[in-house]
Amino acid sequence: MDKVGIIGAGSLGTALAQIVAQNVDEVLLVSRRDELAETINSTHINSEYYPNVKLEENIIATVDYNDLKDCGIIFLSVPSSAFRSTLSTLKNYIDSDAILVTTAKGIEYPSLKTMGKLIEEYFDEDYVALSGPNFASEIVLNLETISNLASRNRENAVKVKEELSTPNFKMKIIDDVDGLEICGIIKNINAIANGICEGMNINENARYGILTKGFEETKKIVE
Predict the structure, then answer these.
(1) CATH code given to domain 3-175
(2) CA 18 from centroid of its chain's CA atoms
(3) Active site (annotated) includes residue 187
């Protein structure tokens, strides 16, 4: 694929751009601010998130959604709070055949919809969800990482896997897109609970007891 778009020049969007750039001719990284886009293009550094990481030369930052019109795959790496407004804007600019990939974890309030369900409102159900126990700060350094892709359209998931896969970034495709999104959300809740325990210097037995309880509740929700 010649060109891939990534909306969101934050920590994860920039990290994914660094990975995808190894497999395509051009990555368009959409920023909200002109100043950041200009800095990335002139220095090949995202000074706000990774001041010590040199970005690939074929990563081009932009603030113009029109630049995405020729992208076959578009990653949506924006916060869940901005997801609906991003979709509403994006609908006016891209080809209907473009594969959308959500990387956001969250549930919209008060609709209680996942990000994938929001995509279905504006586009179709053939989107791809990317989720895993991953840190963007390690992805951008091309450290060993395993993540998951899910879609109701397996062909779309395979195409996304091809653009993301590197010797150090491994992808696994699963069929349960709803399950992947829900588990990704719950994983973050459990991670916050674990972080609180660490911050309070709670003993190990208690911490792992809370973690086990989180696993039990996750199982109930999934079932």
Answers:
(1) 3.40.50.720
(2) 13
(3) yes
CA–CA distance, 35 with 204 (Å, rounded to integer) = 45
Q: Which two tokens stand for residue 151?
A: 């879609």
Write the pLDDT tens digit of every residue in 1-17. Answer: 689 999 999 999 999 99
Categorize the per-residue pLDDT at 38 as very low, low, confident or very high, splitting at 50, 70 and 90. very high
Q: Three-state DSSP class for 182? A: helix
Choice among 3, 170, 187, 219 that is catalytic: 187
User: On the CB side of 100, how many CA atoms lie within 13 Å of its CA?
Assistant: 27
Amino acid letter at 174?
I
Residues 6+ away with beta carbon under 8 Å from 98 = 68, 71, 72, 73, 74
Confidence of residue 133 (pLDDT cuts 50, 70, 90): confident
Q: Are 13 and 77 in contact (CB under 8 A)?
A: yes
Map tokens 């994914």 to a residue. Answer: 16
Angle in degrees, 0-180, between the axes of helices 154-164 and 11-20, rounded to the nearest 10: 80
